Amino acid sequence: MAVEQTDAQLVSRCRAGDPEAWNEFVERFSRYVYAICGRGFRLAQHDAEDVFQEVFARAFERLSELRSDDAVRPWLAMLTRRLCIDRLRLIARDAPSDPELDEGAIDDVLGQLDEAMAVRAALDTVGDPCREILDSFFCRDESYRTIGDRLEIPAGTIASRISRCLDKVRAELDGRSRASRPS
Amino acid sequence: MREMNGFDEEQIGRLLRLLPPAPEGWVRAAQELPAARATLDELVARAEQDAAFRLQLRADLERAVAAAGYEPSPFIVSRLRRLLEEV
After folding, report:
1. CB-based contact B13 A23, cutoff 8 Å
2. Which helix (H) or strand (E) holds A99?
3. Residues of B in Cβ contact (< 8 Å) with A123
4. Is the pLDDT of residue B1 over 70?
5. b/e map of A80-108 (b: 16 or more CB within 10 Å)?
6. What is the 3-state composition of chain B as percent helix, strand, coil, each rounded to the nearest 5?
7. Helix, strand, or coil here: A35?
8. Are the beta carbons of A173 and B5 separated by less than 8 Å?
9. Per-residue confidence at B5, pLDDT binned at 50, 70, 90?
10. Are B4 and A177 inside 8 Å of each other by CB?
11. What residues of chain A score a pLDDT lower than 70?
């Protein structure tokens, strides 16, 4: 199993100026920010790109203002949400017929994305090859053949590997859930 | 957040699908922010000290950045435009 670095540890390294840490920070949260822009606010790709870059630019500039390193994810979610709303207002100014924001629906999506990030963290802990197999199949929508060719494993065994890997992720999530429960 | 205990494989798969990778170019650009920030700091410092350079930037920002020997990436240009309003 891979040793997973907490969000707080990663933020602390970024603050200390570790150049690799910022790369990891972007790597860790890029999907989250991207999903908030796309799934949460349904921004067009070029608008999402602007917001995405602005989120990370502000995060880089203001990381030192973060009150609790553990709270980096909700902080990023709030920052992304605010910038998406700003962008939608800008778009609405030019096209006032756009539908109004459904804040409740956006909250639901953000809740699901938080759960997805927890699953992602469990997958990171399980590590490769499961991470690569599940990421290829579920997140990159690759076929068994493509995955098999890239990882040099028979395509006919991919389905059973996916099943075994999902089981490992589920066990990891169960372990985390037990560990976080008060005794 | 909802309790993660008891999620079955189908739910785990569904949640994983919610987080596709961001386009590689976006991620790379965000990762290059520290270097871009250093470039911005140099350009702003020069603009603060050099009135002629400041005028060049205000006249044609992209050309002035390139003439100063820096890559006028969209990020540098948009950020610099904002910073120059404060100079």
Report:
1. no
2. none
3. 16
4. no
5. bbebbeebbeeeeeeeeeeeeeeeeebee
6. 70, 0, 30
7. helix
8. yes
9. low
10. yes
11. 1-3, 95-100, 181-183
Across the interface, of A49, A57, A169, the residue whose CB is closest to B12 is: A169
Six-digit token pair at A40? 């949460």
Q: Is residue B25 exposed (0-12), middle (13-18) or buried (19+ Cβ within 10 Å)?
A: exposed
ipTM: 0.84
Q: What is the pTM of this model?
A: 0.81
CB contact under 8 A, B12 and A119: yes
State mean pLDDT over B33-50.
88
Mutation target vs B (from A73, A132, A166, A168; most B CBs, 10 A cutoff)? A166
| The token pair that represents A104 in the structure block | 């409740």
Position A84: which residue type?
A: C
**Rg of chain A over all Cα atoms, to the nearest angstrom:** 19
Q: What Å distances lie between residue A14 and A59, A60, A75, A116, B75, CA to CA?
A: 11, 9, 16, 24, 21
Give the one of A112, A122, A123 whose C-beta lies nearest to B18's C-beta. Answer: A112
Which of the four CATH numbers 1.10.1740.10, 3.90.79.10, 1.20.210.10, 3.40.190.10 does domain A1-102 have?
A: 1.10.1740.10
- Tell me the domain boundaries of chain A: 1-102, 127-183
Sequence letter at residue A155: A
